[in-house]
Specification:
By secondary structure, the protein is an alpha/beta fold. 31% of the residues lie in helices and 23% in strands.
């Protein structure tokens, strides 16, 4: 007897970003407020990073609050409600609970239940990972509208005395609604990882270390000192800055060019460049090495918001559109890179 053939959803030609929303921490922390513990200055921070202030959440504001605000902003702009969503993806590395996922909690809060929901842990590349998956879900016919959120409350992981990364960090959430399109509005994603360099950006303690401490078992040392490990304070982030800088500058220009090639375009076709807001010096170096046309619009949200990891690309996009520096229909190259190490890039048509 002939076996029956399984039914499949009807695929569609393309997907596109329908709207982008954002939510930033309401407290702007200037450089002068943080320079004391790291023995630095406003001038040094601006010269090395381009940051003037960083947005941090007010007391009592949670990572869920940031995500929900950004989600509702994006849905309003798209003319949709939570009930119109077929999936919710949340990219984050600062949700303290291993389970349940932040995505399921946000899905309920925005009225999108019973849409499937899950978290993506790819740090600064997380938003581009989410866009890649949303694009695939829509084009496969599995979903009509997908919400992608990049959200971080980095201030929960800050060590005021740390000179490697903490002074860069801000809080915020960016969200994009991805829906069907008669023509492709999201190009193929060029992405990857390199776990051999996982120690380049790292968490000072694992959650398992706390359990070992409770049980009186030895706690393995991290690149931090034995004294710091023994204190078992809330884990914070660290990075080997020069190593990260060299990796990005040596590797990401090629990833960017490959994403443009995969979209069937030339560099001169790109109107807007939106890199992860890691450091203004990195952005400037990427511009020189990739060799865009001279009038390209560049996302520089880091100057006032700081580095918000998975939220940085959608927040930079939201600012460019809101302030009129970019407009709907512009062709943008977005590229995320960071802890993992992980990276992803794709060309998108702005909403």
């Amino acid at each position: 007897m002939t076996k029956p053939t399984l039914a499949q959803p009807t695929p569609v030609l393309g997907s596109r970003i329908l709207a982008v929303g954002g939510s930033r921490g309401s407290e702007l922390v200037p450089n002068d407020d943080i320079v004391g513990p790291i023995n630095s200055s406003d001038e040094w921070i601006q010269q090395r990073t381009g940051i003037r202030t960083r947005a941090r959440a007010a007391t009592g504001v949670t990572i869920k609050d940031l995500a929900v605000d950004a989600a509702n902003d994006a849905l309003d702009k798209a003319g949709l409600t939570g009930s119109d969503l077929d999936a919710v993806l949340v990219s984050t590395v600062t949700h303290f609970e291993q389970t349940p996922s932040l995505a399921t909690i946000v899905t309920d809060a925005i009225g999108a239940t019973p849409a499937p929901a899950y978290d993506v842990s790819a740090a600064c590349a997380g938003y581009c990972y989410g866009i890649a998956q949303a694009d695939a879900l829509v084009r496969a016919g599995t979903a009509e509208n997908v919400l992608v959120i990049g959200v971080e409350k980095m201030s929960d992981f800050i060590d005021p005395t740390d000179r490697t990364i903490s002074f860069l960090l801000g809080d915020g959430a960016g969200a994009a609604v991805v829906g069907r399109s008669d023509t492709p509005g999201i190009g193929p994603t060029v992405w990857g990882s390199d776990g051999s360099q996982s120690s380049v950006i790292y968490q000072t303690h694992s959650w398992l270390d706390y359990r070992r401490e409770e049980l009186g078992e030895p706690v393995p040392e991290t690149p931090e000192t034995a004294e710091e490990v023994s204190q078992m304070t809330t884990p914070t982030l660290r990075q080997l800055g020069p190593t990260v800088f060299k990796w990005v500058i040596s590797s990401m220009p090629n990833i960017a060019r490959r994403a443009v090639d995969a979209a069937g375009l030339q560099l001169e076709d790109i109107d807007v460049f939106i890199p992860h807001q890691a450091n203004m010096r990195i952005t400037d170096q990427l511009l020189k090495l990739i060799k865009f046309r001279e009038d390209i619009v560049v996302g520089r949200d880091i100057a006032d918001t700081g580095n918000t990891s998975a939220a940085s690309i959608p927040l930079a996009t939201e600012r460019l559109l809101r302030e009129g520096q970019a407009k709907g229909g512009d062709i943008a190259l977005q590229i995320g890179f960071g802890a993992g190490l992980a990276y992803a890039a794709q060309v998108v048509v702005l909403p």
